[in-house]
Amino acid sequence: MTESGPRTRILIVEDEAAVRGAVRTLLVRAGFEIVEAPDGATGLALALGTPAPDLILLDLILPDIYGLEVLGRLRQAGRATPVVILSALDTVVDRVAAIEAGADDYVAKPYDPTELTARLRSTLRRVGVTRGLSTLTLGELTLNAVAHEGGRGTRTFPLSPTEFKLLAYFLRHPHRVVPLGELGTEIWGHDDPTNRHAYAQAIDRLRDKIDAPAEPPMLHDSGDGGYVLSESPPD
Ligand code: CA
Predict the structure, then answer these.
(1) Which fold has domain 133-229?
(2) What is the pTM for the complete model shown?
(3) N or C: which end of the chain has fewer CB within 10 A?
(4) Residue-level pLDDT at 2
């Protein structure tokens, strides 16, 4: 395939050499540049280093640091690099914990090669859209993509990577009902009904930041399980 500009760089953090090799072969064929780490500490160092990867494919059970801890340290360091978990652990609890920790998507082992490539491309596409913006506004509400923070009137507030994506999505689709399932697909990469409680909790945390107690609310419940971002309540 032909590409213009530098190729998208994916960091694979995976301790099993056979899995790492198979994923590398798959992703090189798909046109990606690959960086590899056999353990969490190496992965974290590469994730925080220069040049930073565009996406991290992260195993959970690693010999040194648990995968979610690698993810947590990355987010604590202020990095919003998209992370896709690739793990044999595949219960609802595992998936919800990964989303709560700031993962962008979750693929179970054994993985289907076509699906894995498609999910990585989908995640990169979502993040690429976010990267293209500098500031989005609605009334006195703003999202500053450079500072990675939200603002309302004269106050500003920090945003987790998930809250950042949520606010960007709401600001791009103001004054209309956004169903929770649509947010699942757009923000978390899949609308899994078993994860909707976690989606709703993340939206509640964003709402606490957007709507301070003394301010007129801007993020409204639509009454049918959806949300509306608007200066005035929905009809
Ligand atoms: Ca492993």
Answers:
(1) Arc Repressor Mutant, subunit A (1.10.10)
(2) 0.59
(3) C
(4) 39
For 9-128, CATH number out of 3.30.1330.50, 3.30.2350.10, 1.10.510.10, 3.40.50.2300 equals 3.40.50.2300
How many whole angstroms from 38 Cα to the centroid of ligand 1?
Answer: 9
Expressed in angstroms and rounded, the spacing between residue 103 Cα and the centre of ligand 1 is 17
Q: Residue 83 pLDDT more than 90?
A: yes
- Cα 20 to ligand 1 centroid, rounded to whole Å: 10
What's the CA-to-centroid distance between 35 and ligand 1, angstroms? 17
Mean pLDDT along residues 149-175: 91
What is the dihedral sign for C-alpha 64, 68, 72, 78? positive
